[in-house]
UniProtKB/TrEMBL annotation, chain A:
The lineage of its organism: Bacteria, Bacillati, Actinomycetota, Actinomycetes, Micrococcales. InterPro entries: ABC_transp_permease. It comes from Cryobacterium frigoriphilum. PANTHER family: GUANOSINE ABC TRANSPORTER PERMEASE PROTEIN NUPQ, SUGAR ABC TRANSPORTER INTEGRAL MEMBRANE PROTEIN-RELATED. This is ABC transporter permease. Pfam families: BPD_transp_2 (PF02653).
TrEMBL record, chain B:
Keywords: ATP-binding, Cell membrane, Membrane, Nucleotide-binding, Repeat, Translocase, Transport. Transmembrane segments: none annotated. This is ABC transporter ATP-binding protein. SUPFAM superfamilies: P-loop containing nucleoside triphosphate hydrolases (SSF52540). InterPro entries: AAA+_ATPase (IPR003593), ABC_carbohydrate_import_ATPase (IPR050107), ABC_transporter-like_ATP-bd (IPR003439), ABC_transporter-like_CS (IPR017871), P-loop_NTPase (IPR027417). PROSITE patterns: ABC_TRANSPORTER_1, ABC_TRANSPORTER_2. It comes from Cryobacterium frigoriphilum.
Amino acid sequence: MSTIAPVIVPTQPTPPENGPATAVIRNWKTPIGLGVFTVLGAIMLVGFGRDGISTMVLSTTSDLIQLPAVDLPTRATGIVVSLLLLAIAAWSAWLVRGARKTPIWLIGLFAFLLLLGFLVWASAGASIPIPGLLFGSLSLAVPLIFGALGGVISERVGVVNVAIEGQLLAGAFTSALVASITGQPLLGLLAAMLAGVLVAFVLAAFSIKYFVDQVIVGVVLNVLVSGVTGFLFTQLLAPNAATLNQPPKFDRINIPLLSEIPILGPVVFRQTLIVYIMYFAVIAVYVGIFHTKWGLRLRAVGEHPQAADTVGINVAATRFWNVSLAGAIAGAGGAYFTLGSVGAFGKEMTAGAGFIALAAVIFGRWDPIRATLAALLFGFASNLQSVLSIIGSPVPSEFMLMLPYLVTIFAVAGLVGRSRGPAASGKPYIKS
Amino acid sequence: MKLELRGITKRFGALVANDNINLTVEAGEIHALLGENGAGKSTLMNVLYGLYRAEEGEILLDDSPAHFAGPGDAMKAGIGMVHQHFMLIPVFTVAENVMLGHEQTRLGGRLDLAAARVRVKEISDRFGFAVDPDALVEDLPVGVQQRVEIIKALSQDAKVLVFDEPTAVLTPQETDELMVIMRQLKAAGTSIVFITHKLREVREVADRITVIRLGKVVGEASPTATNEELASLMVGRAVDLTVDKAPATPGAPALVVTDLTVIDPRGQVLVNHVSFSVASGEILAIAGVQGNGQTELTEALMGLQPRVVGEITLDGKSLRGHSVRQVLDAGVGFVPEDRTEDGLVGGFTIAENLMLDRSHTLPFVKRFNLQLALLAEFATAKVKEFDVRSQGIDTPVGRLSGGNQQKVVLARELSRELRLFIAAQPTRGLDVGSIEFVHERIVATRDGGTPVIVISTELDEVAALADRIMVMYRGRIVGIVPGDTPRAVLGLMMAGEPAPTTTVPTPPAPIEGAAA
């Protein structure tokens, strides 16, 4: 057995009246994980410590309230952070020794400190624009969040949605085309949602009506959408870029007062309509799934379709329409690529965002809010890479390109562990 | 409400599951539907509940024809069903399960959980159920889950309530309580259809009995009929409900289990400091309601459980911490409780299934090559010996009936030189004929001098086979009693009450120092 195997200490027999007896299982996974990261962090921050001053810029020039930039001595900060990391790892070990669990906020604090140490170390002798870093993170996370919301709905109702990638790409293409022709970004957004629904229709029809393996249909759909949009792009959009691939972008809307909150205001409240729609969608999906009749039935169908059937819920229809709804939401995420950030369609422009969104669904344990937070984390990792390559950090950019995916792997494998999804997700419901 | 089924015929392809069945249930009557597994009782009720569409026949409620396109229609018409496999969503609360399908909402479409809670409380109090509306269903014991099913049906004002094999998962005490509930419902004017294959329950509670065999109604009986009469009606021939077996001649203790504890990943103790021994030439039956640690105990013996503390020795050699392969090689034969899931590979042929546990060595594998001719010869002999009814040794086992599948499992496990034989729920879901056969083979194994452990939730089976009975409750041993212990005592023990002190025998003394 490896060192991280739980150690079992059975308790003495208890009287049967006390319900099922329990034993103490000491799980050393967390403190060992924290210890490893502490060592790695210390090697980087102290062993390869850099000298200089790292500057954290907290305000943009257009802000009403100007916060002063923070200057941190790089080497000293590294040492302090390393010591704090060590303290948290030790505390976690002490907790596990007493058969208690490491609280999640402690792990969060550890991650934050590690990140801070890394930022300070990487920016020795340079300055990091914090609002810009966060703004870019949110921008990169928007399609992930839309995709993850679609994934949550689809999986909660019992259909594994591997086709998020295809829905994003179809949305991106259609919105660019329609918005270019009509000159209306709003029409482009609607068209994107429709395109997402069309992709979802195919997924729903094959997986719900014909019981084809959902993962296979999803993968094939991704390839199909990629091929079709790629073909149309080279044949249609690229030669006529001026008329067909120059969509008007959504205007940025500053919310009065809220947008003047230091640091977060410019990030959250100086966004385009599509991002505000996203905020609304996250809340609506959360409330909908957990507090409405629609959500109760949706979850019932995804957990135990036969039980839902016996109380008169039409399983196939529930699945079909909710998978379609999921497609519409993911399609809207696709529109953000063309109408929100880039401003034109490019071949394969989603670049795997759909799969990262799928990871966010699992990392977020099929919960809309958690999945959104996971998507934000992945967005942050992606943007950190581009910001650091701009300020010229010593880390090779090839390594930094791997960062979002490394974060995804560690997050899904290490932090989530064995999580329980909807019981009937991926299983066709065949009525006899 | 009076319910009448007229000429119901339901086919699945070539199979006629229900053949022109007529059934009348008067208002306020408990009508038992008696038949073997696979006789077509559940199919009939699923037709009634709108889950299946019958090819022919009609359903009349209070003498007017009713048409159900789905369970929703049936519920609206006042038909409720307590399913054999509970139709509850484990991760939902009781209130959520009860409201599902006809949810009340408040302003803005938000679920009105408060109203559902009140409804659950009200019905629960009316029948003295004591069900917490906010408990998660997966945390409730099966007996309480069943009450949730009943509440679910009653919350829809069901006038006809169908109980599909309701006692299969209950302790004898819970079964008695269910009988009381059924009588209460009857007194309140609810008509009840009670589907079962357990004769005693039928005679105890039913007003009328209809017996179904092979999809046809074969007769009506009154609750005063004897067990033998009912059984022969059910099976179609005279049946012997007892097992012929000579008194055991136990030898030295072969399997000695000392202070065994099994823990699940969440830290729950599933088997709690269990010590017992089994002598060669005796059958130790482990009785208990499903889910009281029997499954985990057998899995621990087989090497299938990762967190095991304590000691297991077979003929003086330790088995704990060994792989399944090593346990099998030590001479342990094992019939798992779920044969389709753990005992057989459905898509494999009879012959392939017969060699599954010997796929790594001689005689069936020689230098990485299957010895197909030898296997065919072996399989043909075993099929004959164990009376496996099939079209040949190349038939996939998935196509065999439950009884024949179980015979394949037995043939495989008993064709090795055994030093211990463990059979978990060996006759679950089998017809009476197969049960007789399986029981005979188990007794024959004992008479050959092998120590045998039979795990069963059926008291009939325990009483028929056991030389000694060990009762488990919540992971620990309530007591080890002689094979002829009265049913009432066993029933109480299964609910956790220790046996009267006078009946506790001294088990064979463990071998000194065997655990060292």
